[in-house]
Design a protein that fits this description.
This protein is α/β, with parallel strands linked by helices and about 280 residues long. It folds into two domains: about 10-60; about 65-265, TIM Barrel. It is built from seven helices and nine strands; from the N terminus they run H-E-H-E-E-H-E-H-E-H-E-H-E-E-E-H. The protein has helices spanning about 10-55, 85-90, 115-120, 140-150, 170-190, 200-205, 260-265; strands at about 75-80, 95-105, 110, 125-130, 160, 195-200, 215-220, 235-240, 250-255. Strand 8 (about 235-240) and strand 9 form a beta hairpin. It is globular. The termini are far apart.
Length: about 280
């Protein structure tokens, strides 16, 4: 009697379970493919950054990333993060300008600023200095630190305020500090500063408030910045490039216009005083 009660074959249940898992796997693949299709630039970016982290110990400083097509004036921006820079080698690879981190907040001086500042000019690279803005600190104190650190000379590029730190308490207070820094630094050097920010931060917090200042825009993984061309003068299009003379990644930038536009951006040489008219 017990033999006459036949149980359903176990293989059927296994087959049904396997079929469901295959359906789930297929749905996951389709979903993953859809996400990748929509965010492939970001996914590829994270993959490249992971790769760069893994290979950095094996770099030689000879690696090269092709310059962006459609632009004739290319530059970099650097800080202590780039380590020891071979500036003559950088200059020999068509890097025309470099912005160098000088200060941050109210007390931090970049430990490699003095050397980078000196050697960039010696190598024939047009140099500029930037301050990394801390939004919860007083703008006047931050401006004071910058002007006490950076000896801008005729022929140098204008001072830059890097505004991108998101940890602020009040956007109106932050804007007042930014305005103070810009005003005091312009008064000190007699040159209008450049405002640097990334696209999303600029659009959300700065757009429409500092339009009198030239904009250096960071916008990655796009063929062109979303902002109209008349809104920006420099585009930082990559933060994971390589240039011979620097061991590791560096930011790549392009200037709108040609070499003459770069020359026109520099601080002018003061004109000598005219001799007094004869009486």
């Amino acid at each position: 009697m017990s033999r006459s009660r036949r149980r359903p074959p176990v293989t059927r249940r296994r087959t049904g379970t396997s079929r469901r898992w295959w359906v789930v796997l297929l749905l996951l693949l389709v979903l993953t493919g859809g996400i990748y299709s929509q965010y492939r630039r970001q996914v590829n970016r994270y993959a490249r950054r992971l790769y760069a982290t893994l290979v950095t110990p094996h770099l030689t400083g000879s690696e090269r990333t092709p310059f962006l097509d459609g632009y004739s004036v290319h530059g970099i921006d650097v800080s202590a993060y780039q380590g020891h820079i071979d500036w003559p080698r950088v200059a020999s690879n068509s890097v025309r300008f470099a912005f160098i981190k000088a200060t941050e907040g109210i007390s931090l001086r970049d430990p490699r600023f003095q050397r980078n500042w000196r050697e960039a000019r010696k190598a024939g690279v047009f140099r500029g200095a930037y301050h990394y803005f801390q939004p919860n600190y007083d703008g006047a104190q931050q401006a004071s630190l910058f002007v006490r650190t950076v000896p801008l000379l005729p022929g140098d590029l204008p001072p830059v305020l890097d505004v991108e730190a998101p940890d602020f308490h009040d956007v109106a207070v932050m804007r007042r500090h930014i305005a103070t820094w810009l005003r005091l630094v312009e008064r000190h050097y007699g040159a209008r500063p450049i405002l640097y920010s990334n696209y999303s931060f600029y659009r959300r917090y700065l757009a429409g408030h500092f339009d009198a200042y030239p904009l250096w825009l960071a916008h990655y993984e796009v063929d062109q910045p979303t902002l109209p061309r008349e809104k920006w003068i420099i585009w930082q299009h990559s933060d994971e490039a390589y240039v011979p003379g620097i061991r590791g990644t560096v930011d790549f930038n392009v200037l709108q216009g040609n070499y003459n536009n770069l020359l026109a951006l520099r601080l002018p040489t003061p004109r000598p005083a005219a001799p007094p008219l004869p009486r």
